[in-house]
Amino acid sequence: MPMNLLNLIKQRRNRTAVVIGVLMLVHLAFFAGPDVGYLFERLCFGLRGLMRGNVSGFLLALAELACKLAGIAIWVLSVFVAWAAFQKSRKKGYLILLAYFLLPLVVEPSSRLILVYSFQQQAKALEQLQAAGQLPLQPMNDPTAFMGDPEAFEEDQLHVAEDQLPFGDVAPPFVVARRKIVFPVGPLLLLLGVWRLGKKEG
Predict the structure, then answer these.
(1) How far apart are CA 1 and CA 77, in angstroms?
(2) Is-contact 117 144, C-beta < 8 A?
(3) Cα–Cα distance between 45 and 61 in angstroms, integer?
(4) Distance between alpha carbon 179 and the CA centroid of its chain, in Å?
């Protein structure tokens, strides 16, 4: 079995697929991996809440994780279905679809770099203003104190807001949590369409 896999990789027509697969694995490890790990932590926290009778928290965490994993699976399948359809028919339209499916490999790293660069530029500008004596010392809850990590800034702001609540040491009666649960219906329909078209190619 390993020898068969090695022979498949050595074939010239499969090398592009191997390169795409490696790039996707790296992308998933750096960008999707932390999100999935965080959602698993929330699911474990929801499981502990389930034991105390908090069913909705557990179900929301489960739905969030399921939608995230479904999105990853649909993306991976879409790339390789488009590649297989191109290999079968040699129609360049499938290459355009493949390029569309591979956009996250470029868009997400670029947006992350732009975000980090903008935070760095803000920090430099604030440092220059502070050195010139035009600004007071930077507070710890300033967004530039969390270079390139907006989630850490949001968490810090949440702690500041909790400290400023009028309840003192008593916890507030409720907590509002933001949940992003989006099932990838559009990508799924696109995957099914490409799969059906590729299946008809002779």
Answers:
(1) 23
(2) no
(3) 9
(4) 14
Cα(149)–Cα(18) distance, rounded to whole angstroms? Answer: 32
**What type of residue is 30?**
F
Q: Mind giving me the DSSP string for 45-62?
A: HHHHHHHTT-HHHHHHHH
Cβ pair 101, 79 in contact under 8 A? yes
Residue with tokens 């600004």: 135
- Token output for 24: 């996707």
Q: Is 61 exposed, middle or buried (0-12, 13-18, 19+ CB in 10 A)?
A: buried
- Written as six digits, the tokens of 93 are 């339209």
- Please list the pLDDT of the chain residue by residue as tens digits (202 residues): 454 545 545 556 678 888 899 999 999 999 999 989 999 998 888 888 888 888 888 888 899 999 999 999 999 999 999 999 998 888 999 999 999 999 999 998 898 889 889 988 888 888 887 887 766 554 544 544 545 555 555 555 555 544 544 444 444 455 555 666 788 899 999 999 999 988 887 6
The Cα 117–Cα 148 span in angstroms is 8
Is there a contact between 97 and 194 (Cβ–Cβ < 8 Å)?
A: yes
Residue 128 tokens read as: 């220059």
